[in-house]
Amino acid sequence: MPSPAFGDIVIIGGGCYGSFYTGQLELARSRGRLRYRRLIVVDRNPSCQVFRDSPEPGRQRVCAEWGTFLDGYLAGPPPESSLIVPSPLMPHLLYHWLQRRAQTQWPTRTITTEPAAPVGTPYETEAPDGTRYLSYADWLCPTHCIEPATCPVTRTPRTWDMAEAATRLVGRHPGKMVGPVLFECRHVAYGVGAIAIDQVLAGAAAVLDAGAGGGATDLVVATVSGCHGAFNLLHLGAVS
What we know:
By secondary structure, this protein is α/β, with parallel strands linked by helices. 28% of the residues lie in helices and 30% in strands.
């Protein structure tokens, strides 16, 4: 079976996590487990760990704020079959990117972040910026867990999925919420998870569709893996 081929793989952050992801993806490529056009590592710190390393062929270093980079890169458009590798410690970057795009699309429209409704997972907390962080794990997960079918902590089948939880959330509030717009981080190779950029661009199109009628709309936006997630509620006010 041929190894999967990708366009760009964008790694968010060049610190400890980004350095690990960079090394694992380059190792996977060297062993024929995947192919890619270019590996792009983005960090605002010119002295981050990846930038201090000797550059490898096919690796590009970009010193920029994450949001600024995403605004320019995703407008590209990026090459087909490209991926974004998120950092577990980053803010809800793709939601904020969607929000900025909506504000550009409708400059006179009220666009706000509203509190996301509780989902009912074992762990939930709301950050000051309105993002609700959730997890099905009320235990300490192994570092770089790939979320296999059998949970490595409980040693029982993993019967939960955060994307399904987002869909159920919308279903519990008919007429009040639409969506969800999902950015799903799934295992690619050697302990590295990534989000398909095709799904990111489809999410942007879904926001445009949701707001096209001009009425007030509340849209659930979630970046999820199998076990964990970041949820926001994007409010598009009525066009006056």
